[in-house]
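Hi support team,

I'm filing this because I wasn't sure whether my run with magnesium ion finished correctly. The job status page said complete, but I'd like someone to confirm that the output block is well-formed before I use it downstream. Pasting the exact inputs I used:
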Amino acid sequence: MTTPFQRELEIALSAVKQASQICRSVQAAITDEVLEKKDKSPVTIADFSSQAVICRALNEAFPQDPIIGEEDAAELHLEENHEFLEKIVAELNKAEIPETSPENVCRWIDHGGAKEYSSRFWTLDPIDGTKGFLRKEQYAVSLALIVDGKIVLGILGCPNMPFPIDETVTGTLYYTVADQGAFAIPLNQDDQEQAAFPIRVTTTDDFSQSRFCESVESGHSSHGHSQQVAEKLDIEKEPRRLDSQAKYAVVAQGNADIYMRLPTRVGYREKIWDHAAGVLLVQEAGGTVTDITGKPLEFDQGYELKNNQGVIVTNGPLHPELIQTLGELAINE
Ligand SMILES: Nc1ncnc2c1ncn2[C@@H]1O[C@H](COP(=O)(O)O)[C@@H](O)[C@H]1OP(=O)(O)O
Ligand SMILES: [Mg+2]
Ligand SMILES: [Mg+2]
Ligand SMILES: [Mg+2]
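And here is everything the job wrote out:
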């Protein structure tokens, strides 16, 4: 008997795994190969390679499915970036991706260029936490499938994350399917099915014993406001700061109890590819995710979470009081 989304899971896991391995190999060799995007954020050979590989695999298996991905190939068509494109092609050749050529690489990347909501689509962040990637810290390859506005499958490839039950193993692949639980497998393990380790959030309802995590970048989440919340709730432990959706994984596997993402400026809207996979992972591990006002995140609004502000992730028991405190401190206004 097949379980729902089994084929999607197989294809997506194998694509994210391959992309994560390419990212790892680029990270090991990284020098100064960074492009600056129009919004001044960085993008590397690994971001583009990861998006190309995953979109190629999804397009082959599910040609009808749109992909809302973070990157596009516009910059790669420019003559000045010709060498950069050649380096992406070289990475894909090294990974033995069939039919690799500059034209196909751009085509695959642009296959991830959907922007609009549809009844079934994938959302992809080929490297979430590019700044963490450049610092050789945490980053994640993030892929999720959304059907009728609901996240039904999520995968996070975290090449620098210790495996939850064996910290000597570096590199963890997290996956979840709605109503089927949340799991971790070592990124290097070949027999993924056998090694699947179910992950769970903590059960504490005591803020004084709890730990929260947040972005390294204070421009992505307000450290000042999280400090105020921590003081009000008597959270004594130091926050754990790490880049990317690895924060969702840390809560899902019980290494922290809370993840706060508090707006730094009015008008910023979170992008769906920065959250979808992580949200389902935490929910399936028993936790709760809302925005800072306590509203569920709405994944049927196109590429942004248009109707939400910030994100609050907890183990569940800590959620109501945390949302209430954000209101009392007027952080949600
Ligand atoms: N003002 C902002 N508020 C929240 N998130 C942001 C903001 N600016 C960029 N981001 C996104 O935060 C994500 C990284 O989060 P974290 O710091 O938690 O690792 C990136 O995907 C980044 O998007 P982008 O890569 O498009 O700049
Ligand atoms: Mg980016
Ligand atoms: Mg990214
Ligand atoms: Mg991102």
